[in-house]
Specification:
alpha/beta, Adenylat/UMP-CMP_kin, binds zinc ion, 208 residues, two-stranded antiparallel ribbon, Rossmann fold, binds BIS(adenosine)-5'-pentaphosphate
Length: 208
């Protein structure tokens, strides 16, 4: 299937995408991870304000469309089924995506702002595997893993606030856009991860 997963920062897109990838044997295409792996790539030949993605990301701003569109276009060309996470984040990107591929379903993980802040400030990443944890909700069992966990650069309180503002301003219209298109499926994201997964899985099965 061709799945889009939408949601605010911290809604659980990465967490659920990992399960989707395993269950449905699709590629996980994530602009956030792709940009983090290329934070210092030189984008100065494009008509951008900053020379690398880092400046945008560490402030919680969107990286210019031109950069992100190219990443997604290339990844889609190499994928049959996919779960697309972190894109589109504004209406221009949504229009761009329309020219690149069709979608079977657009999932929206609905979570309150208070819970989002709690999730983001407590999130930890395993730099070796990329696995996502939370100090309270989902701590690792292996003490060796626990020791090497890192916080994401943009999970500071100030940047989190700006990311949420950018989401409301730029990405909420994208959710309305898919709602109008009739492909949006709202999932209650403020349940335990396994309960969210049950709903996500059934929704995909019903749509595919
Ligand atoms: P990106 O990496 O996409 O970040 P984001 O959208 O802010 O989303 P997150 O990764 O923070 O959250 P998530 O929904 O994946 O939640 P997770 O599963 O980790 O983008 C980062 C930056 O890159 C952007 O700010 C921008 O600069 C740039 N960028 C990316 N895409 C772009 C684009 N298209 N255009 C322009 N710029 C772009 O979960 C969060 C935490 O909650 C974890 O600790 C997890 O364990 C926990 N958790 C998850 N589910 C639950 C649950 N059900 N209950 C309790 N805890 C849970
Ligand atoms: Zn993510």
């Amino acid at each position: 299937p061709r799945i889009l997963i939408l949601g605010a920062p911290g809604a659980g897109k990465g967490t659920q995408s990992a399960k989707i990838t395993e269950e449905f044997d699709v590629n996980h295409i994530t602009t956030g991870d792709a940009l983090r792996a290329n934070k210092d790539m030189d984008i100065s030949d494009m008509d951008t304000e900053y020379d690398t993605p880092r400046e945008y990301m560490d402030q919680g701003e969107l990286v210019p469309d031109e950069v992100v569109n190219a990443i997604v276009d290339e990844a889609l060309n190499q994928a049959d089924g996919f779960v697309l996470d972190g894109y589109p984040r504004n209406l221009e990107q949504a229009k761009e995506l329309e020219d690149m591929t069709d979608l079977d379903v657009a999932l929206y993980l609905d979570v309150s702002e208070e819970e989002l802040i709690h999730r983001l400030t407590g999130r930890r990443m395993d730099p070796e595997t990329g696995d996502i944890y939370h100090v309270e909700y989902n701590p690792p069992e292996d003490p060796e893993v626990e020791e090497r966990l890192e916080q994401r650069d943009d999970d500071t309180e100030e940047t989190v606030k700006e990311r949420l503002r950018v989401f409301r301003e730029n990405t909420e219209p994208v959710i309305e856009y898919y709602e109008d298109e009739g492909v949006l499926e709202r999932v209650e994201g403020e349940q335990a991860p396994d309960e969210v997964w049950e709903d996500v899985k059934t929704t995909i099965e019903d749509a595919a």
